[in-house]
Structure of YhfT family protein:
Amino acid sequence: MDIIQLVVVGALGALAAMMANKGIAVFNDGLRPVMPEYLEGVIGKKELAATSFAVSFGLVIGFGIPVSLGASVILVHSILLMTDIIGTWTPEGKKGTIIAGIIGALWGIGITIGLQVVVDLFALMPVNFLDALGAVGTPIVVGFAVFPALAIAYQHGFKKGALTLGLSTLALVLVKKFGTITLESGTTFTLSAEGMALLVGMILMVFFAVRVKGEGTDNQNLVSIFVERVTRIKKNALLLSLTGGLVAAATSLVIIAGDPISLNLMSEGKFGEAALAAFARGIGFIPLVFSTAIVTGVYSPSGTTFVFVIGILLQGHPVFAFIAGAIVMFIEIMLLNGAAKGLDRFPGVREMGEHIRTSMNRVLEIALLIGGALASEQIAPGIGYFWLIGVYLLNQTAKKPLVNMAVGPVAAIALGIIVNILYVLGLWAPIVVG
């Protein structure tokens, strides 16, 4: 592991944990609305810490880490959800902030090194199933291109969603057949069929959204009512910009990714497609992050997630990524008021954000479930599908079920461990996995 990578991820962990401790920024969207209650004395430190642990820890263990194990890139949830917990659990005051920074840095470095250690341990197992885990991400790349059609169907109805799916499918087929272009110099390059299908869907998604008429007042009212909280965020703009720069730098070094889709694309070296996927995700997060920021006075350490796009586009250039990421984060914060008013003028675009997030989550749930099934079947041919279906359905009956997105990766990892135990006991025939 390069020392620069460890310094960057350690600094990110430290700064994110310190900001969570001071109530400046938290990564978990579900925790952000709780922060003002703590800052205003409505709830105490114990209640905040308990809430933070409840909403974040399961996602770290059940989603962030398992998804990261299937690739060479860490899902940022593994770091920033944990720094939320660290920041809220450490004491108040300067001493607590310093402690949060130290633990946050150790966690960032530890998870980066630790995941590699886990990968190395898998390689020592009699049945190495790590290669098979790569199949978890296989359906994500092509499946992601479906989300605009689903978002349109949620917002504008089945017919427009079906039309979008049809045109996206047509684009996918045509680019797969005719997408290889040969230049006069003899150089050839191939367009991404999935990327073009996604682009067609996104263009239609925006087209339908801007056609929605109506005048809203919600966000304008929010700006006037919560002007103090917006001012609070702007006072911390420099600190938040540093965090945005670190996120972009870490992404540029291919240490972290903002979502499973761009993570899998980055691990395959498809940085152009990964940037497009991250950009689409950023569009969906503008209304959520901006609205919660205006209401709570608490921002996200990764902003509206466009810093990930910067990092991907400047892959291999961490210094430039840091500078550009910091600038993008600063601009985001300065545009809080104006963006809220802009969203108010286009109610369809404002509503589109919610549908984008919902459709992305649904696509990821299905894609990761199918990927988990493919990986499980590679690990244990003839048993994998049975295992995955059983785990998924039983999880629905649990008192504290895993989030649906985590079931596929967790089931595949669990099956790999079971197969190794059976092999050691002489109950499993030696097979070549992957």
About this structure: The chain has two domains: 3-127+215-345, 130-212+348-424. Residues 347-379 form the longest helix (33 residues).
